[in-house]
Design goal:
Elements lengths: L7 E4 L3 H12 L4 E5 L10 E4 L2 E4 L5 E2 L3 H9 L4 H4 E4 L2 E3 L5 E3 L7 H8 L6 H16 L10 H7 L4 H16 L8 H12 L8 E4 L3 H4 L1 H10 L3 E4 L6 E4 L2 E4 L3 E3 L1 E4 L3 H8 L6 H8 L3 E10 L10 E3 L7 E4 L9 E7 L9 H16 L7 E12 L17 E3 L12 H16 L8
Parallel strand pairs: 1-2, 1-14, 2-10, 14-20
Antiparallel strand pairs: 3-4, 5-9, 6-9, 7-8, 11-12, 12-13, 15-18, 15-19, 16-17, 17-18
Helix pairs in contact: 1-10, 1-14, 2-14, 4-5, 11-12
Length: 435
């Protein structure tokens, strides 16, 4: 057991909380995870509808998700089996097609841009100049501004903007171009497009999100003496001489609050010393992600596992039949805020079905459909956004989640990294809080 730590509580069994708990259990630290719901995974979890295992939102990973992939391996998941790894490929139903060959960086990116179907050669060179300009400034954008403004300043227009930078921004930051942080976007470009070739690979889940990490992680934690308590909400965290008391009952030397920011707020408000963290959280705005599942007859499929759309409300469609799911099941994804939020679920489903038919040709009516809307899928990643620090002024109390201060947007990798970081801080011996 690590010196100075007796027991650690983790509040929330999302990817951040489970990453923290796996890290602690792996170091021999007794850890208990408390989760208010009966499901693991937080905002990236499995849902079951009429016996069909789906996800609350269609997620993709990229090769740059180093810590996520490492933790998957640690809990017994082989990413080579659980994920379909393909070189960076953006294929749109209108014919635009960009695919990176398996060449060392930067040859892979140059070949992808220059060989992209539907991208004028002048725009390909403009994209390379843009990346070179960011690299020359060490990917620092000072002062921070919107992605739209940054793209304007560097002449990123036409298909380059609508088929590459725009979709990358919305997919990674889940925030519209006009409002998204250029600084965070530059970090995404650095880690995904301007590093090792494998960093830009797309990793498409072949299993539901529960089996991808949360459930194996919980089993791994329990096998090492930890506990994962489902259906146990934490409504109060109280300072006591020996550490932290949860729900007026159990006492822990350290506690990691790893639930969503809107859930962490009610816990932090009980502790006046955390006024700054609470102010940052209360200032957050949020962005949704909507996933519409349409089950067509088994003969319906897409030309690729993932297809891009433009000109409507659908941004990406995934052929779940090509990813280990039921044949004919299409997941249509709409990230960030937009006009689609004004539609009812019935109107949204009908609109998506029409857009799919317009792009793919005449389709039979779906056998069933389901809309899953995560209204607070991520924080709105805006320029100059102040995010709370993971370490609070109170010894032994830490924050974890994709929203805590870091270089990254609200992604699975950001959540996992924050959980690992919080666990490492909890392991370091600290003085007991004074009353």
């Amino acid at each position: 057991m690590a010196d100075g730590v007796k027991r650690v509580a983790v509040v929330g069994a999302g990817w951040a909380g489970l990453a923290a708990a796996v890290t602690l259990a792996g170091r021999g630290v007794p850890v208990t995870v408390f989760e208010a719901s009966r499901n693991l995974g937080g905002r990236a979890r499995r849902v079951t509808i009429d016996g069909v295992a789906l996800d609350n939102g269609q997620h993709i990973l990229v090769g740059a998700y180093r810590e996520t992939l490492s933790l998957m391996r640690r809990v017994g998941i082989d990413p080579r089996r659980a994920l379909l790894r393909v070189p960076l490929e953006l294929r749109y139903v209108d014919g635009f097609h960009l695919r990176a060959p398996r060449l060392p960086w930067p040859l892979n990116l140059a070949a992808a841009l220059l060989g992209a179907k539907g991208l004028p050669r002048a725009q390909a060179f403009a994209a390379m100049r843009f990346i070179a300009a960011l690299r020359a400034r060490a990917y620092r954008v000072d002062p921070d501004r919107s992605v739209a403004r940054l793209l304007d300043e560097h002449g990123q227009r036409g298909a380059l903007r609508t088929r590459l930078w725009g979709p990358l921004c919305v997919s990674a930051l889940n925030t519209p171009l006009e409002h998204a942080s250029a600084q965070v976007f530059a970090m995404v470009i650095r880690d995904v497009l301007a590093g090792r070739r494998a960093n830009s690979d797309l990793l498409l889940p072949r299993a539901d999100l529960g089996r991808l990490f949360p459930e194996p992680a919980a089993d791994w934690i329990r096998a090492r003496g930890g506990a994962v308590e489902l259906g146990v909400p934490v409504r109060r965290i109280e300072r006591v001489p020996s550490g932290w008391r949860l729900n007026d009952a159990q006492i822990f030397q350290a506690a990691i609050v790893a639930c969503g920011p809107h859930q962490a707020g009610p816990l932090l408000v009980q502790l006046p010393e955390l006024a700054d963290s609470l102010a940052a959280i209360n200032a957050f705005e949020y962005e949704p992600i909507v996933t519409c599942y349409l089950q067509y007859p088994e003969t319906v499929s897409l030309a690729a596992p993932m297809m891009g759309f433009s000109g409507g409300i659908v941004q990406w469609a995934f052929d779940r039949g090509r990813l280990g799911g039921p044949a004919g099941l299409i997941a249509a994804v709409i990230s960030a805020s937009g006009a689609h939020e004004d539609l009812t679920k019935e109107e949204l489903t009908a609109r998506i079905a029409l857009e799919l038919e317009a792009a793919l040709g005449r389709l039979p009516a779906p056998v069933w459909s389901q809309v899953i809307a995560e209204k607070r899928a991520t924080f709105s990643c805006r320029p100059g956004l102040e995010r709370p620090a993971p370490a609070t002024p109170l010894p032994g109390l830490l924050l974890a989640g994709d929203y805590v201060a870091s270089e990254y947007p609200g992604t699975l990798e950001a959540a996992v990294r924050s959980g690992i970081g919080a666990a490492e801080r909890a392991i370091v011996p600290t003085a007991a809080p004074t009353l």
